[in-house]
Design a protein that fits this description.
The complex is a heterotetramer, with 2 copies of chain A (about 375 residues) and 2 copies of chain B (about 325 residues). Chain A has about 375 residues and is of the alpha/beta class. Chain A has 2 domains: about 300 residues, Rossmann fold (3-Layer(aba) Sandwich), CATH 3.40.50; about 35 residues. Chain A is built from 13 helices and 8 strands. The longest helix of chain A has 26 residues. With about 325 residues, chain B is of the alpha/beta class. In chain B, α8 packs across α11 and α9 crosses α10. The chains are: A alpha/beta (about 375), B alpha/beta (about 325). Chains in contact: A-B, A-C, A-D, B-C, B-D, C-D. The interface between A and B is large, with 45 and 49 residues. Bound molecules: thiamine diphosphate (2 copies) and magnesium ion (2 copies). One thiamine diphosphate sits at the interface of chains C and B. Chains A, C: This is Pyruvate dehydrogenase (Acetyl-transferring) E1 component subunit alpha. Chains A, C: Keywords: Oxidoreductase, Pyruvate, Thiamine pyrophosphate. Chains A, C: InterPro entries: Alpha-ketoacid_DH_E1_comp, DH_E1, PdhA/BkdA, THDP-binding.
């Protein structure tokens, strides 16, 4: 029995064969795999998706600006990746649970993160975006790939938790990660576990072509979507800049998982239009022509064109949506500028759930030390 | 009260935890059908089924990472790492996730994992099967670390570890799996002393030996031998390595003024260093001599046939007691 | 673009579709993939392969016996896996470099390990089987999967080391590992690296159906050989109890690697007839019927039948080969029984290549301590 | 002599090592085209090509494991771990393979890896980007561990580390990458003191501060401040954390009788514990007070905005100096 990398001819880089429903020029095209999951999507929903993408982009721009102005320690822009994030996240229901990486602004937004929560992390005030359980979404994971295992474990938890009716719940866990992450042992182990237990988990790989300065070809000679089936997980490779494809693909994956058929994998082929983070200078490693090429595949423009063509979007609505996004951005800025660093002694809080003799002693000592300053000052 | 080996007393604790708390799941390599390579999870699969007792794929990072996800969902995973030397592939998940998630989420996400580790040497095992990695975890803020030394403690402490809302790395000396002891299987956890306390296992006035795990047995033998020599040696079983119960330790050292700390792990930046430094900080004016550490050498674990030269034994501990007492016939008192 | 686990119907367990040249009943059959690599194999070579398998089995039996008699700390029997080990290893040349796991007795033997070296490790006298460079074979790796990365790194070294003629050397690195190991992050990262750098490395997965008590179905829902192509590495799934298939498959893989075509992967489908180690009791988890089934697929019997049928093997030669194996086993026993544990102070040797103030001090202290005993004894 | 930042001085050392020794290869994430996220490997790819300067896939275990294989083949890999907090996925390969292969093969296989780690805090970074994991490696027998504190040392010590036949974990304080200093790029390694030596960076008689990395700068500021207070404080830069040069440290402590040990990592079972315990063992009769440790608290690294309360600063070090001298206006002298 010979297995050959039948897919070797397809490059891991740039677009290649993808499933798509909206072309870069804004045409709605057919796709036999995705259409069954997009048939009921009406213009109102498309406008919603458009609005979420505009919001995401606007907040992202604000984040970059705040960082430039010294208000944030760092920002990881998601410019260009709005469709992959918003489309997939909008297909979820509230009780599903999401484990994102650090670049999923659009996912966090769709999942209900407030502007304040979004900036606290990058300002260095907090390490999570609030309590994960209030919106069933974990904070951004920085250790590349680690969250994929958490999603699998959570999905194993779902399998073990009957609902009120005694039937196992049909919630799903979702892991978001990048093309670079695909190389990490953890991500591969996550696929092994997911397949072994048939866990209701969806892997969403945002292949934005780059892991900092390394093109995806360093990570893989084959399309990343081809990895999953080898572990027994079916996958879809979609145009990640097509929000409808993201939405439809996610519904396909969720439906599988909800029905007990186990894990699924989506590779969203997209592009990181900005720097890796505000600390990065992509001109050191990227060809401007590549950027130009991808500018022509913008995820927002194509939906706008489609909706305008259908008469579902006009200048007024565009302006209204932009104004709404501006309001959110302003909220974020206000939250950022009015952020107050919490009390120093809180650094000792919640290291442990129960009292800890060693740390409690340190806390008392540090409190006494700080008090000493105040006394001196008096 | 029942006479049980440590392996059986641990097994009983797992049975009890699974029976009492539906959120407890046991997971790891070979923990199901086989019942674990040390039979500590024996019978659990049959009793609780495979949704509670999970044979996992062979990947430690995967096991701990999946347990983190289960904890996110409200479960209380009890993870078995098959041998001490196989915990390192899971190190990233333990240090960056298990230890930090409660802190990072300001208490929203609990990580009540128990990570059981068949542990340490003296059993003539192959490479990587006799490691003492406890210091790595003691140095990791956010974890609790315990080590047991007898069946009774093993039973209670495992139940306490599972009940703990904090992650606990739980070290079980392989050398003592078959050691027997009297275990009270009916204990109500509410009636037990908290998990973090050390215990004076033998009282004495001339010197204190501080130790944990299988070395407790060796230390007690040394104390008995020292008695023949007219010395009264106190022995303390730390039980909890993080946090250490310094009240108990300091009380002893203030009494004896002399302390020997012993463990199997290499000494350099080991638990003994922490204990020695902390004792010195707390008891400087009571110390008659510098605390002496008797530990594994700062070498990789040697081949099994040579391990007895690596592990502190009765003679090396006695020698250290002599040294800390400035007694002449100390064998290696030579200052080199 | 949809990728589905096309192979999902095939079970990961038991035999399934495999490439094979000698059937369990000893018939030489054709296989279009393997035949090109076996055409020149004459009976003399087959007898050699047979001899190596008999030796392996005999030494393995002796190892188990020595352990039972308390002479060895542990033994990991390879009973039933002789073909996969001997066949693949015999296809190597001396200058190739092998990174085996702990169960590869047959590989170590073919690579020139002496009976003494084989027992020293399991007796607990040493941790390596001598100097790896004398036979270009590393000692047994116990950390599951770790050696696969070493093989890839070594192969990267080969790529960076021109021979005398200035051409890059065409040596190959080989990693042996088990079905259980396939779940480890390291093994997957090894495939990522191997593919990324086109490294001349061959992965040999001995799928013996079990990882201690866990059937391979716990590790995988798909044939393990199907994993590799997803990383861009072609693979072959062979009857691991067919020594000729192992030999031919390895030649295919080696030739690819030598020619600069990069890594290759072989899944040898075999069976662990014995316990995991002498510390294991497989009756706790294994169906005797399964064992029986595999007994009918014995790797040695089938070659014997084939060679006898061809007149290339008769009772005399069989007896001679058995006697030779007995001699080796006796050597191993002697080496075991006459082993002397080395000087205690050698435990401080070779921790570092250069002097180390901290350790040197400990060594002196321990030497003085041991001297003290001797003085006391006097 | 050239005026260089630490990042440039490290870069020069890498250039030199690649030029002098054809077996040296540099590998890691983004070390090639980008020249490293801190530009420490800047220009190396252009100068030595991609067979010597290797952008690897994103997998730390893979990087170190492949480096082990390269070392098997006779190479001398210089591995970059992009940030301190990302070394844990490679922990298994470092602890079980890198640290042990020379020992396990009785010297046949050398592991001359240098593992460079941009390290520690104080730079306002995101989570996992400010870790001080050095104690894990100090506790691991078979590794050498060094930490640099200025451009001149950084240059020489990196060259020494690469030339070392033993594996070296090499910690580079991110806070000091842009700090400038005079570097002698022409030094012949044969003329330099061995890598393991500590250095007295400031002499004094009243107390000794033992530290390493970026804390050396803070300790020097504290010593200067203490001078205004009439105190003469000696400052020792350990430079090598394993082994520690106890000759230099003990000589100082015998002189001053008082010692403060400071580092950023949490104190529990940290390097400071080892140093305190070892000093006490060696200098007990010369100690006027227990060694005092000033370290990061035993907490996960806090959010950036709060890190200044975690890291020992000038005031906390001065406070500790007061304490070790039993001076009344010590702020936290309260025994709790
Ligand atoms: C374990 C680990 N190693 C290295 C890093 C440093 N790092 C942060 S982002 C990044 C690239 C990630 O690329 P990819 O997975 O494609 O995600 P993207 O940034 O493109 O969204 C690297 C190497 C890290 N955060 N964690
Ligand atoms: C990292 C690690 N985890 C766990 C173990 C314990 N262990 C030893 S062998 C084994 C099973 C290995 O199965 P497989 O890879 O199929 O090889 P086989 O034993 O069947 O040859 C396990 C779990 C180990 N040695 N290393
Ligand atoms: Mg990317
Ligand atoms: Mg197997």
């Amino acid at each position: 029995m010979t297995y050959s990398p039948s897919t070797a001819a397809e490059p891991a880089t740039d677009v290649g064969p993808v499933a798509r429903l909206i072309t870069p020029t804004g045409e709605r095209v057919a796709d036999s795999t995705l259409d069954p999951w997009a048939g009921d999507v009406d213009d109102a929903l498309l406008v919603d998706l458009y609005r979420d993408m505009v919001r995401t982009r606007r907040l992202d721009t604000e984040g970059v600006a705040l960082q430039r102005q010294g208000q944030l320690g760092l920002w990881a822009p998601c410019l260009g990746q709005e469709a992959a994030q918003v489309g997939t996240a909008r297909a979820l229901r509230e009780s599903d649970f999401v484990f994102p990486s650090y670049r999923e602004l659009g996912v966090q937004l769709v999942r209900g993160a407030t502007p304040a929560q979004l900036v606290e992390v990058w300002r260095g005030e907090e390490q999570s975006m609030g309590d994960p359980f209030t919106r069933n979404t974990a904070g951004p994971q920085i250790i590349i790939g680690a969250q994929t295992l958490h999603a699998v474990g959570y999905a194993m938890g779902i399998q073990r938790t009957p609902g009120a009716d005694g039937q196992p719940s049909d919630d799903v866990a979702v892991a978001y990660f990048g093309d670079g992450a695909s190389s990490q042992g953890d991500v591969n182990e996550a696929m092994v576990f997911a397949a072994s237990f048939g866990a209701p988990v969806v892997f969403v790989c945002s292949n934005n072509q780059w892991a900092i300065s390394e093109p995806v070809a360093v990570q893989s000679r084959t399309p990343l979507a081809a990895r999953a089936p080898a572990f027994g997980i079916p996958s879809l490779r979609i145009d990640g800049n097509d929000v409808l494809a993201g939405f439809a693909a996610m519904r396909w994956a969720l439906e599988r998982a909800r029905s007990g058929a186990g894990p699924a994998y989506i590779e969203a082929v997209t592009y990181r239009m900005g720097a890796h983070t505000t600390a990065d200078d992509p001109t050191r490693y990227r060809d401007p022509a590549e950027l130009e090429r991808w500018r022509g595949r913008d995820p927002i423009t194509r939906v706008e064109t489609l909706l305008r063509g259908r008469g579902a979007l006009d200048d007024d609505l565009v302006a209204e949506i932009a104004a709404d996004a501006d309001r959110l951005a302003a909220q974020m800025r206000t939250a950022c500028l009015s952020a107050r660093t919490r009390d120093p002694l809180t650094i000792f809080d919640e290291v442990y759930a129960a009292p800890h003799t060693g740390l409690d002693r340190q806390r008392r000592a540090y409190a006494a030390y700080l008090d000493g300053f105040e006394e001196e000052a008096r | 009260m029942t006479e049980l080996t440590m392996a059986r007393s641990l097994n009983a604790a797992l049975h009890r935890a699974l029976a009492d708390d539906p959120t407890v799941v046991v997971m790891g390599e070979d923990v199901g059908t086989l019942g674990g390579v040390f039979r500590v999870t024996d019978g659990l699969l049959a009793a609780y089924g495979k949704s509670r007792v999970i044979d996992t794929p062979l990947a430690e990072s995967g096991i701990v990472g999946a347990a983190v996800g289960l904890a996110f969902h409200g479960f209380r995973p009890v993870v078995e790492i098959q041998f001490d030397g196989f915990i390192y592939p899971a190190f990233d998940q333990i240090v960056c996730q298990v230890a930090k998630l409660h802190y990072r989420t300001r208490g929203a996400v609990r990580m009540p994992l128990t990570i059981r580790v068949p542990w340490a040497g003296g059993v003539g095992a192959a490479e990587h099967h006799s490691e003492s990695p406890e210091a790595y975890f003691v140095h990791t803020s956010g974890l609790r670390v315990v080590a047991v030394s007898n069946p009774a403690d093993a039973h209670i402490m495992l139940r306490q570890a599972i009940a703990s809302d904090d992650p606990v790395v739980f070290f079980e000396p392989k050398l003592l799996y078959h050691a027997k002891g009297t275990v009270d299987l009916e204990t109500d956890l509410a009636d037990t002393a908290p998990m973090g306390l050390a215990r004076v296992v033998r009282e004495g006035v001339d010197a204190t030996i501080v130790t944990y795990g299988a070395q407790v047995v060796t230390a007690l033998q040394a104390a008995t031998a020292a008695e023949d020599d007219g010395l009264s040696v106190e022995v303390i079983d730390l039980r909890s390595l993080s946090p250490v119960d310094y009240d108990t330790v300091a009380a002893s050292v203030r009494k004896t003024g002399r302390v020997v700390i012993t463990h199997e792990a290499p000494g350099e930046a080991g638990v003994g260093a922490e204990v020695a430094a902390s004792i010195t900080e707390r008891c400087f004016d009571h110390l008659e001599a510098a605390p002496v550490r008797v530990t594994g050498h700062d070498i990789p674990y040697p081949p099994a046939k040579l391990e007895r030269h690596h592990l502190p034994d009765l003679d090396r501990i006695l020698d250290a007691v002599d040294r800390v007492l400035d007694r002449p016939h100390s064998l290696s008192g030579v200052q080199l």
